[in-house]
Design a protein that fits this description.
Layout (H helix, E strand, L loop, with lengths): L1 H6 L3 H19 L4 H14 L5 H5 L5 H18 L4 H8 L6 H16 L4 H19 L7 H11 L8 H12 L11 H17 L12 H11 L1 E6 L15 H5 L2 E8 L2 E3 L13 E6 L1 H7 L6 E2 L19 E7 L11 H4 L1 H5 L2 E6 L19 E7 H8 L5 E5 L10 H17 L4 H14 L5 H7 L2 H20 L1 H12 L5 H18 L2 H15 L7 H13 L9 H7 L6 H27 L3
Antiparallel strand pairs: 1-4, 1-5, 2-3, 2-4, 6-8, 6-9, 7-8
Helix pairs in contact: 2-3, 2-21, 3-21, 5-10, 5-19, 5-20, 7-9, 7-11, 8-9, 8-12, 8-26, 9-11, 9-26, 10-21, 10-24, 10-25, 11-27, 18-19, 21-24, 22-24, 23-24, 23-25, 23-27, 24-25, 25-27
């Protein structure tokens, strides 16, 4: 502590410490958004003369940040192409009947996916599928959603691309003269952690996961709030002909509920699972917006609303040239309320095709053309851009938003996956830098039609870029003012005469606990400089300490705020704060004991 006291007599070190303490308070309290806290801290370090503008802003030009920007684009193309279709099918298959089987599948499959794709969109993509699985089996989502989040976190430490925090650690390590991390630098440690963590999820008592609702009405609420109602017909040449709904590709691949089957003049109501489909059958579906857009490209069904569109007017993707897909709301006082789409001759009147209808939490049982519109109804429309502009001038309809350039590019899926695999393989087998491979992949996605230029720009998370770019100034300031050396000396004094294993265990635990109340990025920005300075005193290579901090910041199993994916499942699972702590405490204890040992095994030490 004497060394720390001496260090803060330096005015710049004292200013840096004050800025860091302010940032910690803001991160914990949430008074400012994390990226604003980072920008404020960076501005204060420049304004007080601790850092020059070039030093403070250097983080925004680092390879790690550019790599992350390219990775956002590659990930967007993969999600847009339906790269997770197979995983969605596995979850919906009849082989997965119990929560424990689903948890095992999530642990074994989601983690590898999250090792190369940001875990937040992975969880977001699978959430509705898992909720639908719970709905069909009358199982509470709280029994499976927390394991989904934890499985995604296991994947974040399998490769350098698994998390933005990994890239930030690599960037800080390079800035401090320790060298950057490679794509598979910590995979040898990450794989045993993934397998041990998955084993824990599979064997942990189910009683640790609460039951926050198990009746079908309660579990159906979430689905109804976002479900559209639409009609599809079964063409003569469809592969679904002769299949039962229960075993059909339609229900295995898409998150749909079949509410009614119309066969000629016959109207069949649920249960319909064992009904075999015939050509000309018309199905009334409840479907999510994303899956509805995907259904337009499914050759085995045809949206009933397309029957009046001449085939020649459709582009290969299912949309006419210049067509857009938008949501419109019937506001209070709309003259369209009280009449059906057929009575209104809606398509002829507005030059727009109604794809689907959403009505709050109510189920629409009428055929789409016969459904009587009400105030508050939301219609999903397909129309030329000029017609949408005309709707914007109408008092009867309120245009809510324009969907992101309409349809996913499912037909580009093989090319998209091939580009992503090449991005991973090339830096491994050649001298090509990882940042170059990611940028080449991003350009190839656009050039190959897997992603549109506008979508590339929208895919980049500006909040993440601002946070990571600004936080690197912390590390530079701590190194420049001697604060990192002073904190490392204090740690060394505290850990004097301790074995390396116990020293790493303490550092891991401190990082883990700090991450529960601060963002993981802020935790590593504060601790990595200290860890690098502490390494010589423990007679360990710096990366042993760097990896300890990195893994500690990634194992966020104790609180909902520990990681964004925990927060994402917190609401849908109806969890309470201590539910996360109860389920994650054993996993945190396992990681605390296991990871320091793995790091010492990997680098050598005792």
């Amino acid at each position: 502590m004497a060394v720390l006291s001496t260090a803060i007599q330096n005015p710049q070190a004292l200013i840096t410490l004050a800025v860091l303490l302010l940032a910690v308070v803001l991160f914990i309290s949430g008074a400012l958004a994390p990226e604003l806290t980072g920008l404020l801290s960076m501005a204060l370090l420049m304004a007080t003369g601790v850092l020059t503008p070039q030093q403070a802003l250097a983080g925004f030009g680092r390879p790690a940040l550019i790599t992350l920007m390219g990775l956002f684009a590659v990930s967007a193309a993969l999600f847009r192409s339906g790269a997770l279709d197979r995983v969605r099918e596995l979850i919906a298959s009849e082989r997965i009947r119990s929560p424990r089987r689903l948890i095992a599948l999530l642990g074994l499959v989601v983690a590898p996916i999250s090792s190369v794709l940001p875990n937040t969109p992975v969880v977001a993509s699978l959430l509705p599928v898992i909720e639908a699985w719970c709905h069909r089996r009358r199982i509470s989502p709280s029994k499976v959603l927390l394991p989904l989040s934890f499985a995604a976190l296991f994947g974040s430490t399998l490769t350098l691309l698994g998390s933005s925090v990994n890239l930030l650690v690599s960037d800080i390590s390079e800035q401090l003269g320790n060298g950057s991390l490679e794509l598979f630098s910590f995979t040898a440690i990450g794989v045993p952690i993934w397998l041990a963590g998955t084993t824990y999820l599979m064997l942990a008592p189910q009683a640790l996961l609460p039951d926050r609702g198990s009746n079908s009405d309660e579990l159906g609420d979430n689905k109804d709030q976002t479900g559209y109602f639409t009609e599809v017909t079964i063409p003569q040449n469809s592969q679904l002909v002769g299949q039962s709904l229960h075993n059909s590709r339609l229900q295995r691949r898409f998150d749909v509920d079949v509410l009614e089957l119309q066969r000629g003049r016959e109207r069949l109501l649920p249960p319909l699972a064992d009904r075999r489909l015939e050509p000309g059958d018309r199905l009334l579906l409840r479907v999510t917006r994303a899956d509805l857009l995907r259904l337009q490209q499914e050759h085995n069904v045809q949206l009933a609303t397309r029957e009046s569109i001449a085939p020649s007017s459709l582009s290969p993707s299912g949309l006419g040239e210049g067509q857009r897909t938008v949501e419109v709301l019937l506001p209070a006082g709309s003259t369209l309320a009280g009449a059906s789409l057929r009575e209104l001759r809606f398509r002829q009147r507005h030059n727009a095709t109604v794809l689907a209808l959403r009505r709050g939490q109510q189920t629409v049982q009428e055929r789409l053309g016969q459904a009587v519109l009400r105030e508050g109804d939301v219609l999903l429309l397909q129309a030329p851009l000029d017609s949408i502009r005309g709707l914007q001038a109408s008092n009867d309809l309120l245009v809510l938003d324009q969907l992101e350039n309409d349809l996913p590019t499912v037909r580009r899926k093989p090319l998209t996956i091939a580009i992503a695999l090449a991005m991973l393989i090339m830096p491994t087998v050649t001298a090509l830098p990882l940042v170059a491979a990611v940028l080449l992949a991003a350009v190839a996605m656009v050039a190959g039609g897997c992603l549109r230029p506008g979508e590339l720009q929208r895919s980049i998370r500006l909040d993440v870029i601002l946070l990571l770019g600004s936080l690197s100034s912390f590390s530079v300031a701590m190194q420049k003012t001697g604060l990192a050396d002073a904190l490392a000396s204090s740690f060394e004094t505290l850990l004097n005469d301790w074995s390396n294993y116990l020293a790493l265990l303490v550092i891991f635990l401190v990082t883990t606990l700090l991450t529960q109340v601060m963002s993981p990025a802020a935790s590593v920005a504060l601790l990595v400089p200290v860890a690098i300075q502490l390494a010589p005193g423990l007679d360990l290579v710096p990366n042993a300490l760097v990896f300890t901090v990195l893994f500690g910041a990634s194992q966020s199993f104790l609180t909902p705020m520990g990681h964004q994916t925990n927060l994402m499942v917190f609401g849908p699972g109806r969890y309470r704060f201590l539910d996360v702590t109860r389920y994650g405490a054993g996993l945190t204890a396992l990681m605390t004991v296991m990871i320091p040992g793995l790091i010492l095994w990997h680098f050598g030490g005792s």
